[in-house]
Write a structure and sequence with these properties.
Blueprint lengths: L1 H17 L1 E5 L8 H6 L5 E8 L3 E2 L3 H10 L3 E7 L6 H11 L10 E3 L10 H15 L4 E5 H8 L9 E4 L11 E8 L8 E6 L17
Parallel strand pairs: 1-2, 2-4, 4-5, 5-6, 6-7, 7-8
Antiparallel strand pairs: 1-9, 2-3, 8-9
């Protein structure tokens, strides 16, 4: 009986860890990814890669390669800018985010500060271009306010949503929840964004599809 209880506890812990992740950028400075892995608290990470038409995060390549080398599933995110075209932003994404290095589905980050001037035709085109490039619909990161204003319609139901809310569990449909911007993890200096899955979702939902054998 004691063995069964122990096994059950281990299974619960493993499931909890599988649903825990980080979001990082150059703001975290140099990260010791081996310590992050050894902490047992993180199974995946989203790393800032690009923003707008020309910005590339200085720490992106090092973070991506080091996280993957440490055994952490890694993906990339692009921060949307309403000031440049979808094609200009896609050129920046394509040049920086290489499909063969992505363990996770890429994320399009749409910040709440842009909610009054998103230019949804531009957003839709960028989503289309990203899907064509990576062979899968991107995950959409945003706030509940932006979700209910722009993304609650039927056309966006096929997408997974990554919702930021630091006060409570999101009340909209979501796959991932960024629940704090003040998380702490061994290997990362200072505060870091933490995220976890909705109860009905897991890593399976955001992993890049495997290549079909010819």
């Amino acid at each position: 009986m004691r063995k069964l209880v122990l096994l059950f506890a281990v299974m619960i812990f493993a499931f909890a860890v599988q649903g825990q992740g980080l979001d990082v950028s150059h703001h975290q400075g140099t990260i010791n990814w081996r310590k992050v892995k050894a902490s047992g608290k993180v199974s995946f990470v989203y790393i800032k890669a690009t923003e707008g038409a020309s910005f590339k995060d200085d720490c992106y390549t090092k973070n991506l390669d080091s996280a993957r080398a440490a055994g952490i599933l890694a993906g990339s995110y692009h921060m949307y800018s309403p000031r440049t075209t979808a094609y200009q932003q896609m050129a920046n994404i394509r040049k920086t985010i290489k499909k063969k290095k992505q363990d996770l589905v890429p994320v399009l980050d749409i910040e709440e500060k842009h909610s009054k001037g998103l230019y949804m035709t531009r957003v839709d085109k960028l989503l289309e271009l990203m899907e064509k490039e990576y062979g899968v619909k991107p995950v959409i990161y945003t706030s509940e306010k932006v979700y209910f204003t722009h993304f609650s319609g039927k056309k966006y139901r096929p997408y997974h949503f990554f919702i930021a809310n630091y006060r409570r569990k999101p009340r909209c449909r979501y796959t991932l929840w960024q629940y704090t911007e003040k998380g702490t993890v061994s290997g990362v200096k200072g505060a870091v964004d933490r995220s976890k899955f909705a109860s009905s979702h897991s890593l399976v939902d955001i992993k890049m599809p495997k290549k079909k054998k010819s």
